[in-house]
Amino acid sequence: MKEITTDALCKGKKVVLLAVPGAFTPTCSLKHLPQFVEKADEIKGKGVDTIACISVNDAFVMDAWGKVGQGKGWGYLLLSVGAGDKIMMLADGNAQFAKAIGVDLDLTDKGLGTRSRRYAMLVDDQVWIQS
Predict the structure, then answer these.
(1) How do residues 29-70 score in pLDDT, each as one tens digit?
(2) pLDDT in tens, 84-122
(3) Contact (Cβ atoms closer than 8 angstroms) between residue 71 and residue 83
(4) Stated pTM of the model
(5) How far is CA 81 from each of CA 1, 19, 34, 61, rounded to the nearest angstrom?
(6) Residues 6+ apart with CB under 8 A from 79
(7) Strand 104-106, strand 114-116: pairing
(8) By C-alpha distance, which of 45, 32, 40, 10 is closest to 119?
(9) pLDDT value of position 82
(10) Which one of 23, 28, 33, 54 is the catalytic residue?
(11) Residue 69: its pLDDT value, please?
(12) Does the active-site annotation cover 28?
């Protein structure tokens, strides 16, 4: 695991960035991320250099979530995302990125603290093209 800046991630590259409220949550694990894993080759075939998934979780959680389903994680059948080398897993532990782009979501009343809204965006050489 290592830190990466948005410059290093996006400069001179086409990036699909998807965000989810939380790793290992049912909707994120069963519907959102698996769709991107399944279509990763098709997306990259359209000139996308990197597909990255970001969530307000720590780096260890994001790393484990990306490995589940590859025989490297705990292997819970219902949470088998298997992102492998197809999806880069990014941690926004303190919601700094979510807050900076205005997609933070206060779920304190549900005991979840600050999270990110669910979204997907296309970034081309550091320019947000569409979401």
Answers:
(1) 878 888 898 899 999 999 999 999 999 999 999 988 888 754
(2) 688 999 999 999 999 999 999 999 999 989 999 999 999
(3) no
(4) 0.85
(5) 19, 15, 6, 13
(6) 24, 29, 30, 65, 68, 69
(7) antiparallel
(8) 32
(9) 56
(10) 28
(11) 54
(12) yes
